[in-house]
Amino acid sequence: MSSSGREVILGVGGGIAAYKSCDLVRRLQDHGYLITVVPTPACLNFVGVATWEALSGRRVLTQVWEDVPGVAHIHLAREADFILIAPATADLIARIVQGRADDLLTNIVLASSAPKMIVPAMHPMMWLNASTVENVSILRSRGFIVLDPDIGRLTGSDSGAGRFPETGRILEEFHQMVGENADFLGRKILVTAGGTREPIDPVRYIGNRSSGKQGYAIAQAAIARGAQVHLIAANCALADIEGVKITKVESAAELESAIDEDFEWCDALIMCAAVADAKPVRRDSQKIKKNALSSIELEPTPDLLAKAASRRRPGQVIVGFAAETEDHLANAEKKLQDKGIDLLYVNDVSGGAIFGSDMTRGSVISKDGIIITVSEGKKETLANVLLDQVQNRLSLPNV
Predict the structure, then answer these.
(1) Which domains does the chain possess?
(2) Is 208 assigned a catalytic role?
(3) Which of 208, 235, 347, 398 is catalytic?
(4) pLDDT at position 309, please?
């Protein structure tokens, strides 16, 4: 399984309804899924490889022999979080029941333990044929989710049970299978991550120990819940998140500029980045020799959180972070009030805790005085706790 929890194999069978799955690709992407289309060879008679690659943004293969060194059927099976086959013809259903592996898609189905959903589409006589009825029953007994097709007009003048369902119905059933929460669909989330570095000279800087892992976890969770996400990453050595717009910055000034550019359009700003509190008044263009490095004159960096709060429009939600070593809640509550933000997450970083770790613990404080204790757990868990609170505030009439 992938680490993102959003990898979907979309298998497409060789029926006329294959063209309708073009829209399904887009709608799945709207919900934050990463789609790899695996058409059967017969499908290409209806919709070609170029179309699937253009829509998915990924390479499209139909046979095992097209990527022998990459062992595509095993690689894709391991990466898939979910397999959705739409449309599935009577022939494809029969081959899956028999355990055949005569193209890439059926190989992947055999090799994957991911949840699987099949959306049949065929002529009513084929759908109601005893063989198909038995095959569908077998698949369901094996744990496959098999949708009943819609009733309506088919190819030509025929009508009846066998019509490919509308995209909305497929998505609804798919969401029930995967337990997806798409409550941020249509929302725009701006996330900052990492720690700024304020240059002293070409080789030295003032900075902090923030790795960016928490900000990346929030961006990952937000896009998985349907949001459009812009992640501003300050000095993060982490892999890009597919589907997330990423702007890489170094200093507080660069971070400020990137926030200013997109703050107006966002529904929520989650300010996870640790901004250096001070910067040198003067930056030397040449490396300062060690014996000359006796003192550095500093000045404060801009208060980016307070600046954003001062110019936000009605309805925007702003979340801040605080790393404390003592009097955690008292300091956090003061920061929340001073900055004029909605929510603040505070954690105890005594002894270097939290920084660079995959785990976190702390408290979420709201401007209403509500405190949520977050016991030690993965930063991905905190990401969804924070997003739940953001969503609650976005749903208020006058946040």
Answers:
(1) 7-178 (3.40.50.1950), 188-394 (3.40.50.10300)
(2) yes
(3) 208
(4) 94
